[in-house]
């Protein structure tokens, strides 16, 4: 054993306590004792001697082992928690442990062995380039040793195969690696050096095991486990992220497996696909894994195989599909069935239809796929995502039919209508099955799935449109006739009526999809005739269902399908470029009396308004109805007609709870969110058509609000709290916020915005202030108020660029400041908020405040200096409240809530752009706090956050140089009055805490040199100013960095550092920064490409050799850099650099000047 426990054991008493806690955690029936044990083990995982004690626990019982492995995994996830020596020792110990214990699985914790494999795999990935005593890549050597064990096919072979399988998956993970460049480098290194050999090993071992098993004889447990794990290893190799596309969404349309060209010879020599085909025939119990492997192979890029090899390869895949589809057991295993559907879909997405048609046994293949699709559609309990893959295959086949010669189209022309008919009839079967509880999930519950199916089916139906049309008409007429009889005889809803409504819902969705699809093999005249008949049938059915809607509760699904149909109909026939003289409009006029566009728009609007009246509890249906009305304003001519409709005029003047229950106070709080969309719809119609009559139109729109606002004003002005009626008043305020926000959302010009503001100021702000004082902890009320304020101060489309004599911008700023001030003072007084409620009760409000601050700071509609000129402290108060909120937010919260982090850093950026003095005047401790937050943000994986933090830092550094230059040149003293007044806190920061500037500079230098961040340009912008502030420290860092490389490369590095400052002057103008940025890019490329040896991993200025624990490394380097005893090689580097200093310093002289002024 690599470790001797006697050398590592600390306190036996502590170890015994840990062992007891581990057993309590997994074996105690008492939840309280388990919680105590969990807390103790959590603290243990954060302790300094955690690693050594974990090794001791590994030699205990199964509970202790599981805790030890989980803790070590956690340590690896925290970057820098384990030293190189500890990782090397852990590697040796874990490999010895795994292969010296025969049975590691337990009854209590059955996943222990899998967790061990994950720990070893992650350790190897994180330490992939670590070197041993002889500069040997010891962790890569470990992989070779594991592969040798796997080749032996002995009792340890299975563990080695499982370990390799876990390692292949782990190599594409991100946990434990901060630098993206290092992760990508590790992935590609493993791909180029080991992945091919591992996959080849899996294929070779499969052949060896297959030879040892006689044909037709059963396999024992050991052989079954070996085959299962070898196939899993093979599948993991094929699933490897060859192109580093993890995190990117890849659709089935462009799914390609980019296997390297070096694998080509193996596929032909080892006959990989025939081997899988043989395995599938002999061992059907592994069918899902084998099919998954073949699916990946079916997606190989076209250039991977030459033409003859590709043809043969395609033929093997087709033969496998034919063999599988001939099996009667295909529907018994859902996972296997889904894999077959995916394989069929991928076959067409990665191969041309011409190639498939020319293959042998094509006729049998397409016949079996057709029958398989029809059988799948008729089985109502099949998963709908599997059906979607089959529909996708047929859609692509129909799309490509024009590229196939006439002789190869016969089968598709015959089979495509059969697929369409089978799908249509299957929807009727599903509606019956749902009613009879034969299936648990109804596909109609997921509108996204339904529309996805419809989009695939539409192309198939339109290929032979007349045949599909006949089926649709037959089914539609049958169900519509039965539905008419059912609702006339039984007005109340019964089970049979529900079934008929669901069937009609499916058919209406399909008809709507057919309207938006284009192309197909049918002439335009025939298409218009078919669509005219279908549209008339749907509109007639809609009249029928609307006629009884007042007597009975309507079907929300049926109404949703109507909306989908009307939206599709509108896109094609109701727009500025629609075919108004087509046969569709002639048919509508003859059958339904719809003679012009006004009558047609009346039907659409009336349907949407009817839903708003009768379906208050269905949020999706309400939202879709409002979207339908709003979409009518996309075309100018349609928008003008809509506003003249009688129904719309009624809506504009009677938007009250009496007519629309959605606007009442009794609806659910969540449903009240739709009020914003409702009033956005109305306001948008008004804005598009009102022209110069802005005052008149908005007065008409805002008239119903006057009574609500006056009533709330009286309530909040009253001194008697009994008249408050808390819940009702609260809901009134929420509704008012959402309504006004919706109106402002559609105001994109100054006239409309100003008119709305005149109507609501100042009463509405008084109401919101009082509400915030009373209910600051109620997020249901705070969120609408803040969202209204965000919209109010958003200068979108320069709508807030008021006239010079108009004070609206200043009034808005002051009112929002008062609201935020009241909120922060109240919410910070609330103590003991549970962690699970911290976001809802506090952080969500802070997030909205931050968004509000940014809108105010970047709006460009007011001059902040005016506040200081007249002695108004609103700007300072607002910024103080921001800082108070920032202090209450931990770094863990920023990491856990990305939206909060982005809003927080954007406030800092906007404030440093427009009111930098507020930032610079903060106390030194607060400046340091915010700078460290910016440093944390620079290291974020989110490019937006990192760029935002770099910009903020650049603005602050530029301001520091301006202040220091003014002091240096004796232009005026720091106490001279300015607007706003400046203090010396930022100068104190530079003079008293230089380590802060040094820490930021070193962190950015490390990211520029050793990370592949996507925001390299942004990182370089503040770097020049930081170097000018800390030139002496930068030279020391430069010497240490150069001395960490071998002597033969140090001369090149000196030249690189010299070129870094070529052409750079001692100023921070944009042109000078651009030159420096260009030099940084060249410098970085030289470091990455021309330095042959491995780049050292530098942790905040400390080389890997001297790395210390995170959080103290910077402090260590800063303290030692001032009195560092430079080695011989470093001294030589300093001599080389002595004549290559930066331009004239400003730091020491400036600080001395600052002292003299003070």
TrEMBL record:
Any one GO molecular function term: nuclear export signal receptor activity
| Keyword hit for Nucleus | yes
Report the residue ranges that make up the Exportin-7/Ran-binding protein 17 TPR repeats domain in this protein: 436-668
| Compartments where found | Cytoplasm; Nucleus
Superkingdom classification of source:
Eukaryota
Q: Which example biological process does GO assign this protein?
A: protein export from nucleus
List keywords of the entry alphabetically. Cytoplasm, Nucleus, Protein transport, Transport
Do you know which InterPro entries this protein is assigned to? ARM-like, ARM-type_fold, TPR_XPO7/RBP17, XPO4/7-like
Q: Which residues form a coiled coil?
A: none
A GO cellular component term found in this entry reads: nuclear pore
Q: What is its main location?
A: cytoplasm
Its family remark reads: Belongs to the exportin family.
Query: What is this protein's record name?
Result: Exportin-7
Species source reads Trichinella papuae
């Amino acid at each position: 054993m690599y470790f001797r426990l006697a050398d590592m054991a600390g306190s036996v008493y502590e170890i015994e306590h840990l062992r007891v806690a581990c057993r309590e955690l997994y074996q105690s029936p008492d939840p309280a004792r388990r919680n105590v044990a969990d807390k103790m083990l959590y603290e243990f995982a954060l302790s300094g001697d955690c690693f050594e004690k974990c090794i001791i626990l590994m030699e205990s019982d199964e509970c202790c082992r599981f805790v030890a492995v989980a803790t070590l995994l956690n340590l690896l996830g925290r970057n820098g928690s384990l030293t190189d020596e500890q990782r090397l020792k852990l590697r040796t110990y874990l490999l010895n442990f795994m292969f010296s214990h025969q049975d590691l699985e337990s009854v209590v914790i059955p996943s222990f062995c899998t967790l061990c494999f994950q720990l070893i795999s992650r350790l190897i990935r994180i330490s992939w380039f670590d070197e041993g005593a002889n500069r040997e890549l010891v962790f890569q050597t470990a992989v070779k040793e594991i592969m040798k064990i796997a080749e032996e096919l002995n009792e340890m072979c299975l563990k080695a195969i499982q370990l390799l399988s876990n390692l292949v998956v782990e190599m594409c993970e991100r946990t434990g690696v901060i630098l993206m460049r290092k992760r990508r480098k590790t992935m590609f290194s493993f791909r180029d050096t080991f992945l091919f050999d591992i996959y080849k090993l899996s294929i070779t071992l499969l052949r060896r095991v297959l030879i040892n098993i006689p044909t037709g004889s059963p396999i024992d447990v050991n052989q079954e486990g070996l085959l299962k794990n070898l196939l899993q290893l093979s599948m993991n190799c094929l699933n490897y992220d060859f192109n580093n596309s993890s995190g990117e969404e890849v659709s089935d349309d462009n799914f390609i497996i980019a296997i390297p060209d070096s694998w080509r010879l193996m596929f032909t020599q080892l006959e990989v696909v025939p081997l899988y085909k043989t395995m599938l025939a002999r061992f059907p119990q592994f069918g899902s894994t084998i099919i998954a492997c073949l699916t990946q192979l079916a997606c190989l890029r076209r250039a991977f195989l030459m033409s003859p090899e590709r043809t043969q390869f395609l033929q093997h895949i087709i033969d496998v599909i034919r063999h599988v589809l001939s099996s009667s057991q295909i529907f018994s295993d859902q996972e296997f069935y889904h894999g077959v559907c995916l394989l069929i879909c991928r076959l067409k997405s990665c191969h041309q239809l011409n190639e498939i048609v020319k293959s042998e046994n094509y006729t049998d293949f397409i016949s079996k796929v057709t029958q398989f699709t029809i059988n799948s559609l008729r089985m109502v309990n099949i998963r709908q995502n599997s059906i979607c893959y089959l529909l996708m295959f047929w859609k692509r086949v129909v799309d490509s039919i024009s590229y196939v010669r006439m002789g190869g189209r016969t089968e598709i022309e015959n089979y495509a209508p059969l697929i369409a008919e089978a799908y249509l009839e299957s929807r009727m079967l599903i509606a019956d099955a749902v009613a009879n509880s034969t299936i648990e999930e109804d596909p109609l519950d997921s509108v996204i799935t339904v529309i996805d199916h419809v989009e695939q089916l539409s192309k198939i139906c339109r290929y032979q449109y007349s045949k599909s049309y006949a089926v649709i008409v037959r089914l539609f007429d049958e169900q519509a006739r039965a539905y008419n009889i059912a609702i006339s005889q039984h007005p109340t809803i019964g089970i049979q009526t529900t079934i008929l409504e669901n069937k009609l819902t499916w058919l209406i969705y399909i008809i709507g999809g057919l309207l938006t699809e284009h192309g197909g093999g049918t002439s335009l005249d025939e298409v218009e005739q078919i669509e005219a008949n279908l549209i008339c049938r749907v509109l007639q059915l809609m009249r029928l269902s609307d006629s009884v809607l007042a007597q009975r509760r309507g079907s929300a699904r049926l109404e949703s399908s109507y909306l989908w149909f009307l939206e599709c109909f509108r896109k094609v026939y109701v727009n500025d470029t629609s075919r108004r003289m087509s046969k569709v409009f002639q048919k509508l006029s003859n059958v339904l009396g719809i003679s012009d566009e006004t009558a047609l728009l009346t039907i659409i609007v009336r349907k949407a308004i009817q839903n708003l009246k009768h379906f208050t509890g269905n949020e999706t249906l309400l939202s879709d109805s409002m979207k339908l009305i709003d979409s009518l304003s996309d075309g100018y001519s349609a928008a003008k007609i809509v506003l003249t409709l009688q129904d719309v005029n009624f809506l504009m003047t009677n938007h009250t709870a009496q007519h629309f229950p959605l606007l009442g106070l009794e609806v659910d709080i969540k449903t009240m969110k739709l009020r914003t969309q409702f009033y956005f719809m109305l306001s948008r119609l008004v804005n598009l058509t009102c022209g110069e009559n802005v005052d008149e139109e908005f007065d008409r729109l805002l008239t119903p609000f006057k009574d609500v606002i006056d009533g709330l004003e009286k309530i909040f002005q009253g001194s008697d709290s009994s008249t408050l009626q808390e819940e009702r008043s609260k809901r009134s305020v929420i509704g008012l916020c959402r309504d006004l926000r919706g109106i402002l959302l559609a105001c994109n010009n100054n006239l409309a915005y100003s008119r709305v503001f005149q109507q609501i100021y100042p009463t509405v702000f008084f109401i919101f202030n009082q509400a915030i004082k009373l209910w600051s902890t109620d997020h249901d009320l705070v969120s609408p108020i803040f969202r209204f304020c965000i919209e109010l101060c958003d200068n979108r489309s320069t709508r807030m660029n008021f006239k010079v004599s108009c004070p609206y911008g200043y009034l808005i700023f002051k009112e929002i400041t008062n609201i935020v001030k009241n909120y922060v003072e109240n919410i910070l007084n609330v103590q003991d908020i549970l962690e699970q409620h911290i976001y809802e009760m506090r952080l969500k409000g802070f997030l909205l405040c931050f968004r509000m601050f940014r809108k105010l700071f970047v709006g460009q509609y007011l001059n902040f200096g005016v506040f200081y000129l007249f002695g108004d402290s609103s700007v300072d108060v607002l910024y103080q409240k921001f800082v108070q909120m920032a202090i209450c937010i931990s770094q863990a919260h920023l990491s856990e809530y990305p939206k909060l982090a982005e809003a927080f850093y954007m406030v800092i950026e906007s404030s440093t752009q427009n009111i930098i003095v507020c930032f610079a005047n903060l106390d030194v401790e607060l400046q340091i706090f915010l700078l460290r937050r910016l440093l944390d943000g620079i290291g974020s994986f989110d490019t937006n956050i990192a760029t935002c933090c770099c910009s903020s830092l650049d603005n602050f550094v530029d301001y520091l140089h301006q202040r220091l230059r003014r002091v240096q040149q004796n232009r005026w003293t720091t106490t001279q009055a300015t607007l706003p007044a400046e203090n010396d806190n930022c100068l104190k920061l530079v003079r008293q805490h230089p380590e802060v500037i040094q820490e930021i500079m070193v962190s950015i230098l490390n990211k520029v040199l050793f990370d592949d961040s996507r925001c390299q340009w942004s990182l370089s912008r503040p770097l020049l100013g930081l170097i000018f502030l800390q030139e002496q420290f930068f030279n020391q860092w430069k010497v240490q960095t150069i001395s960490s490389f071998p002597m033969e490369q140090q001369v090149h590095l000196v030249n690189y550092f010299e070129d870094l400052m070529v052409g750079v002057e001692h100023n921070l103008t944009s042109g000078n920064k651009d030159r420096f940025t260009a030099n940084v890019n060249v410098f970085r490329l030289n470091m990455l490409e021309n330095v042959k040896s491995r780049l050292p991993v530098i942790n905040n200025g400390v080389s890997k050799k001297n790395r210390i624990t995170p959080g103290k490394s910077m402090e260590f380097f800063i303290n030692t850099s001032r009195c560092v005893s430079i080695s011989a090689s470093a001294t030589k580097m300093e001599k080389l650099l002595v004549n290559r200093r930066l331009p004239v310093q400003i730091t020491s002289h400036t600080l001395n000047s600052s002292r003299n002024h003070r």
